[in-house]
Every structure is written in C-alpha cells, then in structure tokens.
TrEMBL record:
Name of the protein in question: Ornithine carbamoyltransferase
Annotated GO MF terms: amino acid binding; ornithine carbamoyltransferase activity
InterPro entries: Asp/Orn_carbamoyltranf_P-bd, Asp/Orn_carbamoylTrfase, Asp/Orn_carbamoylTrfase_sf, Asp_carbamoyltransf_Asp/Orn-bd, Orn/put_carbamltrans
Pfam families tied to this protein: OTCace, OTCace_N
Presence of keyword Membrane: no
Reaction(s) catalysed by this chain's protein: carbamoyl phosphate + L-ornithine = L-citrulline + phosphate + H(+)
NCBIfam families, alphabetized: orni_carb_tr, PRK00779.1, PRK14805.1
Record keywords, A-Z: Transferase
EC number: 2.1.3.3
Domain of life: Bacteria
Amino acid sequence: MRHLLTGFEFSQEDYWDIINTAIDMKKDPKKYDRVLAGRSGAIMFEKPSLRTRTTFELAFFRLGGHGVYLDLQNGELGKRETIADYSRNLCRWVDCLVGRVFSQNTLTELAKYGSVPVINALSDLYHPAQAMADYMTVYEHLGKVKGVNVAYVGDGNNVTNSLLVAGSILGANVTCFCPENCSPDAAVFIKAQEIAAKNGCKLAVENDISKLRNFDVVYTDTWVSMGDNTPLDTVKKKYMPYQVNSSLVEQSGAQIVMHCLPAHRGYEITDEVMDGEKSVVFDEAENRLHIHMSVLSKLINA
Ligand code: CP
Ligand code: NVA
C-alpha cells in the first residue's frame, strides 16, 4: 500500500507514470470509466477549496467510484474523536482517504492508524497533487520537464515546497525568489536538493528579484496562505517587488506563467498577466482533475 503524503514517496518513474496516465485519461476518459467501480474514498477538508474538492469528487465519479465529502471546516480532525479512531472507522468503509489539513501531522496519523492509502490534498507543508498537475501542464506547454528553468516568485509556502520536491524528482531547475524570511521550508529544501543533485538539476532560493532572468516558467501563489489570518494589505509592502506583473514577466523571459489559484488579483499577480497570453492557470486547474484520476487509480488499485 502506498500513500501520497509529501511527494517524496514517488520515483521519477512513478511521477511519469502518473503524468502520462493523466494525459491519456484527459484524451480518452471513456477508457477509464470503470477503473474504480465499487470503490470509494472519504474526502476530508479542514480548509476551504474550489479546485481540489471539485476535482477529487469528480475523479471518483469519472472512474466509476464514489467520493464521500466530509465537511470539517467547522472543526479540525481529532476534536470529536481521536484521529486514530477516526481513521480506523473510515477504513472499514472506504478504499482511500483524501485530506486537506492544517497540520501535516494529521495526515501522518491518518496513515499510521488506517489501512488504506492516504492522499495529501494540501497541508501546511505540502500540496503534492498540485505540483503533479503543474508539471503535467509544463510538459504539455513546453514539451519537457527535465532541464526546464522554473522561477517561483513570492511567498515560500506549501505550494513552493511541493514544486521543489516534484521538480527535484523530475529534473527541473527551480529557483525560489522570496523576500527575506519568507523562504520555503529549510528541511524540505535540503532533502529536495539532495535528490536534485542526483538528477542533475539545481534548486536555489534567492532574495534578489533583479536576478529573475532567463527562465522558462514563472510561478506564483498567494502571499498569505489559508490558516494565516494576516490581511494581504499588511504584507503588501514587503511582497510588492515580487508581484508578477507585465514588466517582471518580460524581465524573466518566461514562456508561460503559472498560479495554483485562487489568485489575489492586484497582489501577487496582475489582471494583465492572469488574463494574458502566457497565462496557463486554467490549464493547471483543469489538469487537477486528470491528475487526481490518475493518482486515485494508481493508489487504490496498487
Ligand atoms: N489550487 C487549489 O488547491 O485550489 P483550491 O484551494 O480551490 O482547492
Ligand atoms: N498556499 C496556498 C495554496 C492554496 C491552494 C494556501 O495554502 O492557502
């Protein structure tokens, strides 16, 4: 049995298997409509979602299975009963647990006490299925992932960490342009860097935004992640030099601009860029569905 908790669990071969299957599912969905017949999953969200919730539910449906959505927005897992008991209950009924949680530790606990695959649908530390959809999108637009130069610009967060993890495994060069003290997680970065060294690619963190030149991809995300109630205007001054606007995109030389969404227009990205010809943000959003179908079928049928 395999989980998708961090993204480190999978080899380069696994990543390509997931991406290539997703591409085939996108092309020929009919072929896969009984893959999860009679199978089910619990979809648990402690935080809001549009894309991840919709696409996980639809992924079960499109594969002939069923996803039960458990609304946890009024309370964290582990409050009404222990996470261990919660997991032990669910595993008597379903074939998979999908969780969006405040703490990565909640997913570790679900996996520890459960008996079915656990999939991370975003935590404080990682957003691994997002990164898979993102590199699938890079592949569709640029024809390769290995050696592609990705610039992540903005706050070093869960999405950044997962871009580093998946990038290191797939052989992409990822540079994170972040303000001081807003870097991606140090431990994740070091672990990803070790993998990158073996795969012949480079990871870096950089404060100096004037060095954003000669990249293929510019990627950004919110300056304030879910769970942090700081108003965006409070942090605006610090992050404004990292705003993905037309002049920054031109300076970068990038062919495509990415954002996991939801976007805060006028903050981390301008309307002009979001709606511009280099923006592939809705392709990324669409690919969440195909990647979730692929991940569910790989893990549940393993
Ligand atoms: N990108 C993403 O995970 O979007 P949601 O928060 O809407 O699921
Ligand atoms: N970093 C963002 C991603 C949202 C999909 C957050 O955690 O809120």
